[in-house]
Amino acid sequence: QVQLIESGGGLVQAGGSLRLSCAASGGTFSGKAWFRQAPGKEREFIAAITWSGSRTDYANSVKGRFTISRDNAKNTMYLQMNNLKPEDTAVYYCAQRILLYGESLPRSRYDYNYWGQGTQVTVSS
């Protein structure tokens, strides 16, 4: 079974930066994505990346501020978050598809089969 572990969350002031990591065991060649969930809200799509890292997709709320990337040799995905806003405060989750070598960039949580436990990001103002 694929297991995902997020890290890198914490408390940061508005305008600051954080880099999240998602270490995986197994499932190297599958599409991955980042989601987040704020208290009382549904889990929200943030960014997705194909198996090779050749294409990416971002939610409008983070476009231009966040960058998704992956290092398949390390089986790790990253989310570089710059110019953070209080609205970015949430638990951030990494997710992975079961399909190998997928080139699509689905935004639905139901297209992802494996999930990490989440890491808290809090942005103060």
How would you describe this protein?
- With 125 residues, this protein is mostly beta strands.
- Helix content is 0%, strand content 52%.
- Strands 2, 4, 5, 6, 9, 10 and 11 form a 7-stranded mixed sheet that branches. A 4-stranded antiparallel sheet has the order 1-3-8-7, with no helix packed on it.
Describe the global form. globular
Q: N- to C-terminal separation? A: 40 Å
The helix count comes to: 0
Helix content: under 10%
Question: Sheet with the most strands?
Answer: 7 strands, mixed
Secondary-structure content class: mainly beta
Residue fraction in strands: over 45%
Low confidence ranges: none
Show the helix and strand layout.
Layout: E1 3-7, E2 10-13, E3 18-25, E4 30-37, E5 44-49, E6 56-58, E7 66-71, E8 76-81, E9 90-100, E10 114-115, E11 119-124
Parallel strand pairs: 2-11
Antiparallel strand pairs: 1-3, 3-8, 4-5, 4-9, 5-6, 7-8, 9-10, 9-11
Concise account of the structure shown:
By secondary structure, the protein is an all-beta fold.
Which terms summarize this structure?
single chain, 125 residues, seven-stranded mixed sheet, four-stranded antiparallel sheet, 52% strand, globular
